[in-house]
């Protein structure tokens, strides 16, 4: 029977499936980035149920945040949320008749709040996707890191960086 547990940091914001854990010097399961100790829930379904309850309690966008957070270690959720807000927003115009840009079937996977996969890796999180007047698809993506941005431009994808500032409240 596969181990379905989801683990998350007791003292950091990291979370992922149990197969991703590191170990402390004494051999206990730990965050693979900072070595912090972990809590766990029994299944991924249980994990998302908790996330969805939290979103439904008036925390719009929480689920998308947790999707993005997977596998990343920050000292606190607040620091993670700041990094999430500060991500570069890029607009990609994707010609729908050109299936070479995205992997086959990928257009179907372009859903708000979910990772966008291009050229063999997740490059960011879809913020919005809408058809343009020319019949192309305009995708606004919160880019994960500079490497993702370089991957897109190196592969000839037209990327324009949004100038809008995140709320600096
Ligand atoms: Zn950690």
Summary tags:
169 residues, alpha+beta, 3-stranded antiparallel β-sheet, 10 strands, 23% helix, disordered C terminus, binds zinc ion
Structure write-up:
There is one protein chain. The protein has two domains: 6-84, no CATH class; 87-161, Alpha-Beta Plaits. The chain is 23% helix and 27% strand. The protein is built from four helices and ten strands. The chain has helices at 44-56, 62-69, 77-85, 146-154, and strands at residues 6-9, 15-17, 22-23, 29-30, 38-41, 89-94, 115-118, 121-131, 137-143, 159-161. A hairpin with a 5-residue loop joins strand 3 (22-23) and strand 4 (29-30). The termini are far apart. The model is unreliable at 165-169 (pLDDT under 50).
Give the arrangement of secondary structure elements.
Layout lengths: L5 E4 L5 E3 L4 E2 L5 E2 L7 E4 L2 H13 L5 H8 L7 H9 L3 E6 L20 E4 L2 E11 L5 E7 L2 H9 L4 E3 L8
Antiparallel strand pairs: 1-2, 1-5, 3-4, 6-9, 6-10, 7-8, 8-9
Bound molecules: zinc ion.
Which regions have little confidence, pLDDT < 50, spanning 5+ residues?
Answer: 165-169
Shape: elongated
The molecules bound to the chains, other than polymers, are: zinc ion
Distance between the termini: 48 Å
Strand fraction band?
25-35%
Number of DSSP E strands: 10
Tell me roughly what share of residues is in helical segments.
Answer: 10-25%
Q: List the strand order in the largest sheet.
A: 7-8-9-6-10
Q: Please compute the radius of gyration using only Cα atoms.
A: 18 Å
What is the helix tally? 4
How does the major sheet shape up? 5 strands, antiparallel
How many domains? 2
Helix-and-strand structural type: alpha+beta
Order of helix and strand elements from N to C terminus? EEEEEHHHEEEEHE
Average the pLDDT over all residues and give the rounded result: 84
């Amino acid at each position: 029977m596969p181990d379905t547990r989801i683990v998350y940091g007791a003292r950091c914001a990291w979370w992922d499936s149990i197969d991703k854990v590191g170990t402390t010097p004494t051999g206990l399961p730990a965050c693979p980035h900072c070595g912090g100790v972990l809590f766990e829930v029994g299944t991924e379904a249980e994990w998302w149920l908790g996330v969805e309850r939290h979103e439904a309690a008036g925390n719009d966008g929480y689920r998308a945040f947790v999707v993005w957070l997977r596998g990343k270690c920050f000292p606190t959720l607040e620091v993670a949320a700041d990094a999430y807000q500060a991500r570069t927003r890029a607009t990609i115009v994707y010609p729908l008749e050109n299936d070479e840009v995205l992997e086959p079937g990928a257009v179907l996977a372009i859903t708000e709040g979910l990772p966008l996969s291009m050229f063999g890796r997740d490059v960011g999180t879809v913020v919005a996707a809408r058809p343009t007047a020319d019949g192309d698809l305009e995708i606004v993506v919160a880019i994960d890191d500079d490497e993702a941005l370089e991957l897109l431009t190196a592969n000839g994808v037209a990327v324009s960086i949004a100038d809008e500032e995140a709320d600096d409240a």
